[in-house]
Amino acid sequence: MAGMSERTGPVIVGVDGSEDALNAAVWAGAVAEKFEVPLHIVHAIPDAGPLLTDAAAALRASLIAEQRASAEEVLKSVEDAVRSRYGELTITVTQSDEPASKVLADLSEDASLVVLGSPEVRVGAALLLGSTTIAVTTHSSCPVVAWRGGITAPTDQPIVLGANGEQTGADAYRTAFEFADRFGVSIYAVNAWPGRRVLGGIEIPSMIDWGAVEAAQWQYVMASVEPWSERYPDVEVRYFIETGGAGQALLQHAGDAQLVVVGNRGRGLLAGALLGSTSMNMLHHSPVPVLVCHNATR
C-alpha cells in the first residue's frame, strides 16, 4: 500500500449532520491541506442494524427519510465550515442513498484517507447493532481515522505509534511518520511487553535474566523504528516500553497526543471484538483520533 505522501486521491470524510461529523470534517480538511490533496465530503444512509420489531423498522425508515431530506443542507453547512478555514482547498461533495459503510469503502479504493466522526465504538454496539466505523475500518482500502476528542487542527502534541514490529506493519509505521513529518511533531513509539509474567502468570526470576530480556525488547523496538527514522530524519522519536497489554500501553500516552496510529491484522468484526485487538481497544477507549492501518496486502 502506498504511503499518504504518494497518494493523490482525496481525503474522504463521512458526515451525518452531527457536531462530531462537522468537527471531523474540519480536521479532515486540515489533513487534506497538509498533504496537498482534495477533500471529498460524503453524506450517505446510516447502516442498518438488526430490526427487532416492526416499530423499530418504521422508526428507522422515518430517520432515513429525514436524513435524505436534510442531506443537501448538511453537505452545504459542512463545506462552508471547512472553506472558512481552508479557502484554497479543493472540496467536492456527494449525497448517496446507499449505506454509508458501502459508499465509504468503495470510495476508499482511490482515496488517501477516510475520516469518520466517532466519539467511541462500544463493543456491544459493534456486535449487536452494527457500526459504520467498524465496517469501514474493516473493509477500507486505505487508512481510516475514527475522529474524536475535540481536536480540529494539527497541534504541537506528539503522534503515538503502536510499535510492535511486523504485527504493526509497514503501513502504520509509514503513515505515522508521514503525519509527524507534515505536522512537524514528534512520535512516541510505544511497545507493550508482559514484563516478568511468564507461563501461567508465574514469576520465575531465578531462571530468567530479566535485564537481558528487557534489553532485547528495547533493541527490537528501536530496530523496528530505525528504518523510518532514517527516511524521516526531521521527525524526533521517543521510545516507551510499558508492561501490560498493547491497548493499555497506548492509552497511557494517548491523553498527551493528537493522534494514535495502530496497525490492524484482523479482517472481521468478531476477530476484533472478541479477541480484544489493539485497534478495537483504541476505537473503544482512546480520547483522541485513532488512525487504523491494515498491515496485510488487500
UniProtKB/TrEMBL annotation:
Transmembrane segments: none annotated. Belongs to the universal stress protein A family. PANTHER family: STRESS RESPONSE PROTEIN NHAX, UNIVERSAL STRESS PROTEIN UP12. The lineage of its organism: Bacteria, Bacillati, Actinomycetota, Actinomycetes, Mycobacteriales. This is Universal stress protein. It holds the Pfam family Usp. Residues 10-146, 158-294 form the UspA domain.
